[in-house]
From TrEMBL:
<feature type="binding site">
    <location>
        <position position="109"/>
    </location>
    <ligand>
        <name>4-amino-2-methyl-5-(diphosphooxymethyl)pyrimidine</name>
    </ligand>
</feature>
<dbReference type="GO" id="GO:0009228">
    <property type="term" value="P:thiamine biosynthetic process"/>
</dbReference>
<protein>
    <recommendedName>
        <fullName>Thiamine-phosphate synthase</fullName>
        <ecNumber>2.5.1.3</ecNumber>
    </recommendedName>
</protein>
<dbReference type="InterPro" id="IPR036206">
    <property type="entry name" value="ThiamineP_synth_sf"/>
</dbReference>
<feature type="domain" description="Thiamine phosphate synthase/TenI">
    <location>
        <begin position="7"/>
        <end position="189"/>
    </location>
</feature>
<comment type="pathway">
    <text>Cofactor biosynthesis; thiamine diphosphate biosynthesis; thiamine phosphate from 4-amino-2-methyl-5-diphosphomethylpyrimidine and 4-methyl-5-(2-phosphoethyl)-thiazole: step 1/1.</text>
</comment>
<feature type="binding site">
    <location>
        <position position="70"/>
    </location>
    <ligand>
        <name>4-amino-2-methyl-5-(diphosphooxymethyl)pyrimidine</name>
    </ligand>
</feature>
<feature type="binding site">
    <location>
        <begin position="135"/>
        <end position="137"/>
    </location>
    <ligand>
        <name>2-[(2R,5Z)-2-carboxy-4-methylthiazol-5(2H)-ylidene]ethyl phosphate</name>
    </ligand>
</feature>
<dbReference type="InterPro" id="IPR022998">
    <property type="entry name" value="ThiamineP_synth_TenI"/>
</dbReference>
<keyword id="KW-0808">Transferase</keyword>
<dbReference type="GO" id="GO:0004789">
    <property type="term" value="F:thiamine-phosphate diphosphorylase activity"/>
</dbReference>
<keyword id="KW-0784">Thiamine biosynthesis</keyword>
<keyword id="KW-0479">Metal-binding</keyword>
<dbReference type="Pfam" id="PF02581">
    <property type="entry name" value="TMP-TENI"/>
</dbReference>
<dbReference type="InterPro" id="IPR013785">
    <property type="entry name" value="Aldolase_TIM"/>
</dbReference>
<feature type="binding site">
    <location>
        <position position="138"/>
    </location>
    <ligand>
        <name>4-amino-2-methyl-5-(diphosphooxymethyl)pyrimidine</name>
    </ligand>
</feature>
<feature type="binding site">
    <location>
        <position position="90"/>
    </location>
    <ligand>
        <name>Mg(2+)</name>
    </ligand>
</feature>
Length: 214
């Protein structure tokens, strides 16, 4: 199973955002420490998801970074991504594991110990836990759980916990103190005036340095 980087970048395909440019900037700094989770808007076609994911796999591979596809596991298989990530309204974790096979990375969303334990038992390689803080990136999210909520999940499971939701470099230390293995961001990079600098700041907060191979 591929190693899991500590900085996860979720693609932002909203109007006015350039996911490819953001990924390029982050990869140039983070290299193998970066995991790119390809997420598209709900109304995007499978072809659009396939085209975006394929381009990102091509960018990640020479840099030694990991590409996962959120929700659309058939796209993950089609582009030879390292795996996928499923949320609460996607395929159940056990079904997702059957689709991807035993060796793929599989992330699952959780916000409490019970859900987290079920996801791990069903085959999740890591957990995306949150939202940690309030965020406007995605509609319909539940109330933030804060670092304390992250800590409760960490204590319950033995797989890496990736904190997500309103994450900034300034908030990373509190999440690491709660036991998070890493963090996932959207707007902190896609909305940054200088995504490379923002990536550097996030890596520094994580206590990591990138080691790009290209």
């Amino acid at each position: 199973m591929p190693a899991l980087g500590r900085l996860h970048l979720i693609t932002d395909t909203r109007t006015g955002r350039d996911p490819i440019a953001t990924v390029r900037a982050a990869l140039a700094v983070a290299g193998p420490e970066l995991v790119v989770q390809v997420r598209v808007e709900d109304d995007a076609t499978d072809r659009e998801a396939y085209d975006l994911a394929g381009r990102i796999v091509e960018l990640c591979t020479p840099a030694g970074a990991t590409c996962l596809v959120n929700d659309r596991l058939h796209v993950a298989l089609a582009v030879h991504a390292a795996g996928g990530h499923v949320g609460a309204l996607d395929l159940p974790v056990a079904a997702a594991r059957r689709v991807l096979g035993p060796d793929a990375l599989l992330g699952a969303t959780a916000r409490d110990p019970a859900t987290a334990l079920d996801a791990v038992a069903d085959g999740a390689s890591y957990l995306g836990v949150g939202p940690c803080y309030a965020t406007t990136t995605k509609d319909g999210l539940p109330e933030p759980i804060g670092p304390a909520g992250v800590g409760r999940v960490v204590e319950a499971v033995g797989v890496p916990v990736i904190a997500i939701g309103g994450v900034t470099a300034e908030r990373v230390p509190a999440l690491l103190a709660a036991g998070a293995y890493g963090v996932a961001v959207v707007g902190a990079l896609s909305g940054a005036a200088d995504p490379s600098r923002a990536t550097t700041e996030l890596l520094a907060a994580l206590g990591r340095t990138g080691a790009p191979t290209c």
